[in-house]
Amino acid sequence: EIVLTQSPGTLSLSPGERATLSCRANQRISSVYFAWYQQKPGQAPRLLTYGESSRAAGIPDRFSAKGTGTEFTLTISRLEPEDFAVYYCQQYAGPPETFGQGTKVEI
Amino acid sequence: QVSLRESGPALVKPTQTLTLTCSFSGFSLTTSGMCVIWIRQPPGKALEWLARIDWDDNKYYSTSLQTRLTISKDTSKNQVVLTLTNTDPVDTGTYYCARIYGRAPISWGQGTLVTVAS
Known about the structure:
Chain A is mainly β. Chain A has strands at residues 4-7, 10-12, 19-29, 34-39, 46-50, 54-55, 63-76, 86-91, 103-106. Chain A has no helices and nine strands.
């Protein structure tokens, strides 16, 4: 089973700052089958990016993803107030399609 | 347009069997490469993958829950059903279904909250 470890657990930043979230896999996976989600309280996860670096529909370009092998990164170039949330990574290269434990981005 | 919607009981008593239905539109689970997965999230905790069913009826289960889970599909109704036997309060949470199809964006339902309590 592919285990995804996200860091840091919590990221304390201010609006306008840059956020860098990491996700490390315990074995190599294709970036084609990698996704990032944002989740706010009481809401379903919202797909941000998928594949090598594609943004989902309606996702602003301040969100960008990159990575290869075992190291993956989500960058939010300039935090907006609505970006403070929990972020999850997921690999869907094959079952089980595992998730990271989440990174909370807080003010 | 792809759409998924989860349904099932909001409250289940401990030891009962939980049956959840994922009703979908905008795609067919007979299409080669199509998959539907179930995920759950206990309150305040992370997402947990539960099971997957493929277009060719291959099925996969969480190692820790495989003895209690069953996933099935009804392609004529565009539904995927997940059953969880012998429920416990730790099974409380929001249950989601999602579609995975190759390199396409993953589509999720809005989730259904299930509480296991007596």
